[in-house]
Specification:
single chain; TIM Barrel; two-stranded parallel ribbon; 12 helices; about 60% helix
């Protein structure tokens, strides 16, 4: 009986020890699991931090590359005290040895940039110069596929411009970003179409009338007479007289501190962001409305002077009588 009781007591003690051991194992397992979870969480956090740091580094690298690219582009822009954008419609004209090639050669010699508004039907015939435009700092614009006037089409020039964009891109690798309507003719429908295509409408301040007179001296004089900071000048690289007159005008105006840039370069210089579908004649102070206040002040001063003079004359007249 006594032995049986001892065995019973020992069995109870053994059972209690087993329970205690199991509890200890559970706690240890819990601690191990908790420790593993913490280690896993720390690893994930470290991985996330590393990923974020790499993303931030990559973003910073792209920003620096973009800034460097913009600076390189800015350095390519001709520098001067005043700026003019020469623009040429209806080209190209001729292939090797043609008028457009001679014009490009003359512009390159003078470090002058220009904007060429090309017609698609002429690009199809004369495309040997297409690679030179962008490579030499010029801008390629769109002047419709078939030189159609706004009132001759029903879709606001959308198809004419869109198809010409694709054609020009096939030669230059870049779609035009500026549009000039044929004859400067546009309407609400044209503006709506250009807004869809993301293209501003570029007109001009100075018309050389080179198509009318076809005289080099006349072309040169029109440019000299209309020259002012921010002006856009219209010509056509269709005539030999235009090439001669333009190059002669550049030589003279460069001596006066003018630099010749593209339309888009001129807009940036003047702090203007070109908007799709909007019409721009140029970027002179008058175009931008910057001299309105001074003109108003001048007019007020003239009026005041005129009134004062009139009052003096009236007073003198009264005294005489």
């Amino acid at each position: 009986m006594i032995k049986w009781k001892k065995r019973l007591i020992l069995s109870g003690i053994a059972a209690m020890l087993c329970v205690a051991m199991l509890a200890g194992c559970g706690a240890s397992g819990s601690k191990t699991t908790s420790s593993n979870a913490k280690q896993s969480g720390s690893a994930q956090t470290a991985s996330t931090d590393t990923g974020s740091a790499e993303q931030a580094k990559e973003k910073q690298k792209k920003l620096e590359e973009q800034k460097k690219k913009e600076q390189e582009e800015a350095n390519k822009i001709p520098k001067g005290d005043k700026y003019i954008a020469l623009t040429f419609d209806d080209g190209p004209t001729g292939n090797e040895g043609g008028r457009t090639e001679r014009l490009l050669d003359g512009l390159k010699e003078r470090n002058a940039h220009a904007t060429f508004f090309l017609c698609g039907y002429r690009v199809k015939d004369f495309n040997s110069m297409m690679k030179r435009y962008l490579a030499e700092g010029h801008e390629v614009g769109n002047h419709t596929m078939d030189h159609r006037l706004a009132h001759e089409v029903s879709d606001g020039d959308y198809e004419q411009v869109s198809s010409n964009n694709d054609l020009i891109q096939s030669y230059t690798g870049q779609k035009p970003t500026v549009f000039r309507p044929c004859g400067g003719e546009y309407n609400d429908s044209v503006q709506a179409s250009m807004q869809k295509l993301g293209m501003p409408i570029i007109l001009w301040d100075v018309d050389t009338l080179d198509w009318k007179y076809r005289d080099a001296a006349s072309v040169k004089q029109h440019i000299l007479d209309g020259a002012q900071d921010g002006a856009i000048v219209l010509e056509h690289d269709l005539y030999e007289t235009t090439v001669e007159g333009v190059l002669a005008a550049i030589d003279e105006l460069q001596q006066q501190g003018y630099a010749f840039v593209t339309v888009s370069e001129l807009s940036k210089i003047k702090g203007v962001t070109l908007e799709a579908g909007k019409v721009y004649n140029g970027f002179t102070d008058e175009d931008l409305g910057l001299n309105t206040e001074s003109e108003t002040s001048s007019e007020s001063a003239e009026t005041s002077t005129s009134d004062s003079t009139a009052n003096t004359q009236a007073s003198n007249s009264t005294s005489s009588n």
